[in-house]
Amino acid sequence: RGADLLAQESSTGDNGQFSFSNIAPGQFQLTITAPGFATYTSSGDLQPGQSYTVPTITLTVATAVTSVTVGAAETQEEIAQQELKVEESQRVLGFIPNFYVSYVADAAPLNPKQKFELAFRDMIDPVTLGFTAAVAGVEQAHNDFRAYGQGAQGYGKRFGANYADIASDTLIGSAILPSLLKQDPRYFYKGTGSTRSRFLYALANAVICKGDNKRWQPNYSFIIGALASGGISNLYYPANDRNGAGATFETALIDIGEDAVSNVFQEFIVRKFTPHAPPVQSDNLQSRVSRFAGLFVHEGH
To answer: What is the pTM of this model?
Structure first.
């Protein structure tokens, strides 16, 4: 292919020859290109009436350049941190924290630091503090825990007691024990299967959980945490309102029941009202735990 200063173009024939006509005298530049070959460029000076014959041209093969970018693979901790950031942005109706739910069925397990990060993030959330303040206000209005008295001092004690309940329950059941026992404190949304299988799965998750090895196991962290939190509350509630051992176990059972109901809401309702929730990702583990859940609930009744 050749061209003069007026940018004329031509394609060669099968024999590789080409020609231009009506080229004005003067300087010219010839550029030859072909796929897979280096571009050839030459210049010359065409005299009036001259017929210029281009010497034999041999194109060289173009240099092939391959760019390879090598990056370090993300570690399990890095993947878990990315998933954790997504969970910390989950809010029902756009403002109620919904941090302890994973919509990634095969999510990377959290390390102890990340479990504590999630617990503290939940404890200091403005909605958590606002809810605690509201409950303390209702108790003050009803004069619950009379020994606390009224006024600012009585309200402060009620607020402190309620917040201590939340803090101890969250720290022990969702951070300390899960770190020691290597268990995951999150609820793993199922989202697939029959209504019955999802319902049984949600109920069973009140007493079973994923371990850091991604295997399902009894949820010792939540059960023991509920008992420990109930026992600790006897340190700051008025003597007349403290729970004995029997009442502590009863409260723990109520907590387990409430968690089961909460899981059912998570499975069927909450996600619909959680903006920007990630797409549901399922895995074979959930189908296995669904079968286990059916066995557990059947034997429990």
So the answer is: 0.69
With a CB cutoff of 8 Å and minimum separation 6, the contacts of 291 are none
**Rounded (5°) CA angle 180-183-189:** 155
Give the three-class secondary structure for 218. strand
Spatial CA neighbour of 100 closest among 219, 187, 184 = 187
Token pair belonging to 191: 């989202």
Can you give the pLDDT at residue 89? Answer: 94
In order of 6, 32, 33, 69, the CA distances from 21 in angstroms are: 12, 17, 20, 49
Q: CA triplet 284, 289, 291: central angle to 5 degrees?
A: 100
Under a CB-based contact definition with an 8 Å cutoff, are residues 99 and 121 in contact? Answer: yes
79 token code pair: 């993947």
Cα gap 65→62, rounded to integer Å: 9
SS3 286: helix
Helix/strand/coil for 273: helix
Q: How far apart are the first and last CA of the chain?
A: 87
pLDDT tens-place string over residues 84-142? 999 999 999 999 999 999 999 899 999 999 999 999 999 999 999 999 999 999 999 99
Strand partners, 29: 43
Three state DSSP letters for 26-93: EEEEEEECCCCECCEEEEEEECCCCCCCCCCCCCCECCCCCCCCCCCCCCHHHHHHHHHHHHCCCEEC
Torsion angle (degrees, nearest 10) of CA 252, 258, 262, 267: 90
Please name the residue that has the structure tokens 């093969």.
Answer: 61
